[in-house]
Amino acid sequence: MTRLATGEGEALLERFRRYLREHRQPVTRQRVRVADVVLTSEEHLSVEQIRRRLAAEGRAVGLATIYRTLDLLVEAGLARDHDFGQGYRRFEPVPGREAHEHLICVRCGQVLEFAHERLARMLPIIADEHGFQPERHRVEIYGVCRNCQRRGLG
Fold it and tell me: How far apart are CA 146 and CA 108, in angstroms?
């Protein structure tokens, strides 16, 4: 995953606090802690990974609170959820950076991000050729990563 710029995670966390207040939602320690894990992560985290990170810090946060907080983060536009066909969702922060696409290893589950200038130029052209007004897109390429290929898992 693309690294967040210095202070970007904290800025997203402050936006989350403001979103909660504006929507008359409680700003609890548990919500802020869940948001902090997601918004400062450099990975696409699953709910289980979030729960384990919180537990490793000695913070007991219920799964219902984790799920509700993740829904609020997505609703606020501060996190994006992905279903990479593994039976669960993964979450990533949505800072003000360029769009990116995903390469997903079907063997180990690794998710790599990439941005490609030619692809970014082609997508609107393809939509226009079909008389389609694009609002958003998602490109996910499923395959076997380099490490799994080396280990003979490809």
Answer: 11
